[in-house]
Amino acid sequence: MTNETALFVIDMQNDFVEKDSLIEVKEIRENIPKFKKFLKDCRKKGYLIVHTRHCYDPKKNPIEAKLFSELRGGGLRRKTHGWEIYKELKPEKGEIVIDKTRYDAFFKTDLEKILKKNKIKKIIITGTMTNICCESTARGGMYRDFEIIFCSDLTFSRNKQKQEGTLVTIKSHFGKVMSSKEIINL
């Protein structure tokens, strides 16, 4: 699976990860050691690592501005501390960083072009939020004929029902659902 595989680290930004942040997903912090180990293992396997940062921009995405009212208070604003990738998961030199204004990392970005240039066929999805950006990106990847592997224990949501619902949906129609341990042992 090595040279045809990309690991997506979706939106592991301070506004989602840090304690008491505007849109905190509490479960993330307790899983940072496991996430760091998985990221390290994927780097050792030679996977292309792709980090995304969600950018709240009412001008570029007015619908999200209406729907995601929590962000009106200043969350995920480009070039702010909250928008930056969490310190323990920072990209290393040569890793890809995609800034996006929609939930699907493929929408109006160069992501598909980058993956094709690198001859990627499989995408491992990790990050937050499971039921929003992770699921949207998984669907976007599948629609572009990439094989999707959705990491069940390293995708995070604020709600267990939403987490489980997304895993069922992905498994039934969009890709494989596997634990980080199962993925590393492929």
What secondary-structure arrangement, pairings included, does this model have?
Layout: E1 5-10, H1 14-17, H2 27-30, H3 32-44, E2 48-54, H4 62-67, E3 96-100, H5 111-117, E4 122-128, H6 130-143, E5 147-156, H7 160-174, E6 176-178, H8 180-184
Parallel strand pairs: 1-2, 1-4, 2-3, 4-5, 5-6
Record keyword descriptors for this entry.
Rossmann fold; alpha/beta; 186 residues; six-stranded parallel β-sheet
Distance between the termini: 7 Å
- CATH topology category name: Rossmann fold
Strand content: 15-25%
Strand order of the largest sheet: 3-2-1-4-5-6
Helix content: 25-40%
Secondary structure: number of strands: 6
Helices, by number, come to 8
CATH architecture annotation: 3-Layer(aba) Sandwich
- Largest sheet report: 6 strands, parallel
Mean pLDDT: 94
SS-based class: alpha/beta
Taking all Cα atoms into account, the compactness measure Rg is 15 Å
Q: Look at the structure and name the CATH superfamily.
A: Isochorismatase-like
How many distinct folded domains? Answer: 1
Q: Please report the first level of CATH classification, the CATH class.
A: Alpha Beta
- Envelope shape: globular
